[in-house]
Amino acid sequence: MTSTLLRNSTDRVWPAEGVTRVPAWIYSDPEIYAKELKVFHYGKTWNYVGLDCEVPEPNSFKRSWVGERPVIVTRDAAGEIHVVENRCAHRGSLLCWKNRGQAKDLTCPYHHWSYNLKGDLMGLPFLRGAQGKGGMPRDFDKSKNGLTKLRTAVRGGSIWATYSDDVPPLEEYLGPEILMRLDRLVSRRPLRLLGYSRQLVESNWKLYWENSRDPYHATLMHPFLSTFGILRTDGDYHSVPLQEGRHEYTYSHYDPELKNRSTEASKQIKSIRSDLEMKDKDVVTSVVDEFKDGMMGAFQVFPTILVQQYFNCLVVRHVIPKGVGAHELSWTYFGYEGDDARVNELRLKQSNLVGPAGFVSLEDSEVLSLMQPVVESCPDSVQVLEMGGHGTEAQATMMTETLIRAFYDFYRREMDL
Amino acid sequence: MSDWVRIADESDVSDGEAFASEVEGEAIALYRYEGAIYAIGDVCTHEHVRLSDGWLDGDRIECPLHQSCFEIRTGKVIEGGPAYEDVPAYAVKVEGGGVFVRRNA
Amino acid sequence: MPDSAISRSDLREFYEDVAACLDAEALADFPAFFTEDAKYQVISRENYDDGLEHAPIFCLGRAMIEDRITATVEAALYQPRSLRHFISGVRVVEAGADEVRTEANFLIVESLIEQEPQILMVGRYLDRVVREEGALRFRERTCVYDNYRIRTTLVIPV
Questions:
Q1: The model's pTM
Q2: Closest CB from A116, A123, A142 relative to B63
Q3: ipTM score of the complex?
């Protein structure tokens, strides 16, 4: 990338204040976006691509995405998981058109090149021509013309892929704190797929990435939470950045008494209403304590997922960039094999809380899609991130932007900005 | 086809070349190899295409579509292509200048 | 025809009343279109066809529908919008002793500030309708949307 290609190269300097300021051009500059994909999604990271319960049987497949690139997650006849690009090695056409299914091989609709589920080219029509004419040259080597294979790793029920040969093994990339939280949800029991919600949000992917690192907005913009006493500024809450800002986790302990208390902090939030009650208690107060730890929380694994548990609703949010000004949120809801009817019903009911119609998430996409044209129109403006100070350390409060600052600390190093 | 059925003249079948025929709706190909005549099913078990349009290489026929290979003497699939199942092999006899086939018991 | 029988024109009128309620954003009136034990869900065709149960809107019982309306009216924050429902092909699939199974197509056009109107959602209603206290009500309404993705948000019931 040469600086002359930038629309206004002198502006591409991070504000002198450091991580307490974020320049708006990072949300709209196509070159920044292209560099992010190269450095992050196609670089030294592990990308979440799916859950093993989505490819439950041998000879099954599902589509996924790494950055903007379509990939196919397969389970071969021997039960082995593979991740390959969903792009025919011949002419680049989209190979697999179905989101999920069973197949013994992958055949391109265009010229019927056929690959096994590992991505090896098995055969192509008229390799030797027809009636002695045409066909591929004698030196054409099928073994060198397979699908692009990604390095793959499986942890519990989660499937990951990377383009990098250098990125450390998945376990090391995730680190002990994330591993513990991931294992808690996906490694103890076989998973059961409950379904998907897919949502297109017309904002740069980082606006969403920051949003889920921003507890400050949660009680203000999502009045549902405080109204029904799920999350309050006066509750127990922890924001913990990891690996110098790469990943993070937050957690709180659910306190059913919280709604009945009124404190200084809660009085300041005008959205708190004491007269509102849910008629069906299952959505916000019935919990089967399946993890025996009373914990609710979320964690981010850079650069692809936010994993969140609301009571018994378990969901992976996969953030898939779709150009500089849009991203898809692909929500995968899951439970466990052998869930009883009661737990299953709670999971389905509580999934009303999150997702594109979720009581505590619909505001995010509303605000972010309205925010994108504003930040695009003012690329030289800056965001102010001083809540909770100037640092990037873990903090035991919701009134902090430490996780966003930690992210941009990491981001600037990786992006060389 | 539990009885012998005449499928070709002996002179139709020559070395290094498949002879495609059909009996009672079943596509069958004849091959002459090291002096003997062999008959195997002519539709690939991977995708529906006639193997006899493919590439004959010694004792194996290679599918024109995706290069699955089958032994012309036995119909057995050779590992390495996208087909996993064998094609049927038929009993063959040559009598009075004609080639007869019968489904193997 | 017995008094309790549900004619096609009754149904058509019922569907239009429900649509008018939603178009007018008279959300408080919406739960009354359902029986006490009703199931109301809005589910993607992807999940529905694959036998996956998750639905972005999933209500078991009128109380949950009332809760969703309360949450939408009292708590949810969203930009102002106009919705217009276009319903076609209302038909009875199966007439039982005390209920009819019905199907219809829906198209919902959403108009937001500073934007051209756009299709919010298109799909099928798969319903079970009963007559209760003289009025038609849904015992079940499953809205199967064809959209691969929901654009931005789904705020108002379908």
A1: 0.91
A2: A123
A3: 0.95
